[in-house]
Amino acid sequence: MDEDKKIMFEIKEKKEFSYISNGIIERVLNLPNVKKKKGKEKVKEARAMLRKYFSVFISNKLVKGKLEAEEILKKHLSTKTRDYKKLYEKIIQDEKTIIDLGAGLNGFSFPYMLEVNSEIRYFAVEAILPFVELMNDYFQEKKFNAFAVHGDLFNLSEIIHLIGKEKSPKAIFLFNVVDALELEWDYSKKFLLEIKKLIHNEDKIVLSFPTKSLSGKTNFKVKRYWLLDFLENEFRVEDNFDMNGEKFFVLRKK
User: CA-based, 20 to 30 A from 68: which of 40, 46, 156, 212?
Assistant: First the structure.
């Protein structure tokens, strides 16, 4: 076993990282501040970087036992503070399909989407396989027009292919994934520009990032001006608003 495979195995021995895809861990291992480390120090640094970029998605509590959808939404870090009913009333209109990239466990909020648009179809892309399996079990049990696939947002050609198959009007959700995409410098800009090529005037992108810490007690000082300038230059910002510690942008083609 080569050194990086051994390191990856050690990282994933800790349960909170066991569901992170190998592709993401490989990218972390190639970060300059991680790559220069050796042995246990490399494992420690890699885990620290994974917590930094993916802490909102890491969970080892939701793969045990059977929970109701509302319980799952309230337990998981990336979903527990959202008022989904209010959010979807604000951002969903006459779209045929929701494409949820880096979905986490948003799929369990699908009933709230149906309250706004009973004909809508939901398609989630998520890198953590147990989340994909949980959502698909739920969709099948409820006979929803929804499904989830196991995918890596850093595999851009795959994401482009998946989006390209969906008919307009569609909405593409990117909730709290920008920070994770910045694991690769400026990748979020590249990613958004590629999506921009695929969407039509009737389509939208709904992007969010956290404005408070996971505990909700600390406001972030980082304003992400680099992102705000980019969005204003490349897209028509139809709406932006704050809700429960998240900043949302509704984007259209210019």
Answer: 212
CA–CA separation, 252 and 57 (whole Å) = 27
Output the six-digit token pair for 245.
Answer: 């510690």
Cα angle 149, 107, 87; round to 5? 135
Note whether 193 and 234 are within 8 A (CB).
yes
Q: What CA–CA distance (Å, rounded) separates 181 from 139?
A: 27
What strands, in cross-sheet order, belong to the sheet with 204-210?
146-150, 121-126, 97-101, 170-175, 204-210, 246-252, 236-243
- What is the spatial distance between Cα 75 and Cα 77, in angstroms, rounded to a whole number? 7
Helices (H) and strands (E) in the chain, counts: 12, 7
Instruction: Decide the pairing of beta strands 236-243 and 246-252.
Output: antiparallel
The pLDDT, as a whole number, for residue 215 is 46
DSSP per-residue string spanning 158-210: HHHHHHHTSPSSEEEEEES-HHHHTTSTTHHHHHHHHHHHH--TT-EEEEEEE
Looking at residue 78, what is its pLDDT?
63
**Per-residue pLDDT band at 200 (split at 50, 70, 90):** very high
Distances from the Cα of 180 to the Cα of 121, 140, 205, 237, angstroms: 26, 29, 17, 22
Confidence of residue 22 (pLDDT cuts 50, 70, 90): confident
Helix, strand or coil for residue 65?
Answer: coil
From 156, 154, 138, 158, select the one nearest 146 (Cα to Cα).
Answer: 138
Burial 84-100 (b: 16+ CB within 10 A, else e): beebbebbbeebbbbbb
Find the farthest-apart pair of alpha carbons in the chain and give their distance in angstroms, rounded: 54
